[in-house]
Amino acid sequence: MNEISNHWLVHQLQNDRPISIRAIKPKGSQLPLFAQNRTFHPSRFISAQALKDAFEAEAQSLSAAGYNIYTVMNQIRSDFFGSLAVKDADITHRTTLLVDIDRIGDTSHPATDAEIDAAFELAGKVESYLRGEGFPDPFWVHSGNGCHLYYRTPAIPQSALVTQTVELFLKGLANRFNNSVVSVDTSVFNASRITKVIGTYARKGVESEGRPYRIARLV
Question: Which residues does 62 contact at the CB level (< 8 Å), separation at least 6?
Fold first, then answer.
């Protein structure tokens, strides 16, 4: 199976809701790239599979061109069309909770295997703690430079209170689990949060021996 097909295990289609791609020039890239947004609206495709095929083809094409490829992980309003970036005001419901664990310090270049191992070790501690608090099993994704835990939730209407709750939740995890090597990212609480498209490259700065570009993948 092509790795990008695993994207749909984590990020399910939501009935009549559009999905979005954001292609961003990696920091340090010398390529003449400009940020791009793509909206895939179900009404413009003959089937869900046709939409998935178009999304995958575009994501892989943009990744091959040198971009970092992201998608919006929560429900976008059903009347969103066009090529603008999705904003918080365009999100109607939360469907995903992301715990993003990455190295501390200089992140302008790819991570080492040891740094990634440390992120996964911390992710295991977070998962164990949250399981004890009644959370379901998350999806584990190798983000290319760290570890993502994705918790699927019922569709929760978006509000300022929900945003505040997610922010406090992430800060609580950070206070409990951060160490001198890796940490929980407390900035990923916003409703229109973008996250790596599984099956595409994660690029930071210049790759080198022991610090290669890697493909984000389900583990």
Answer: 21, 23, 36, 69, 200
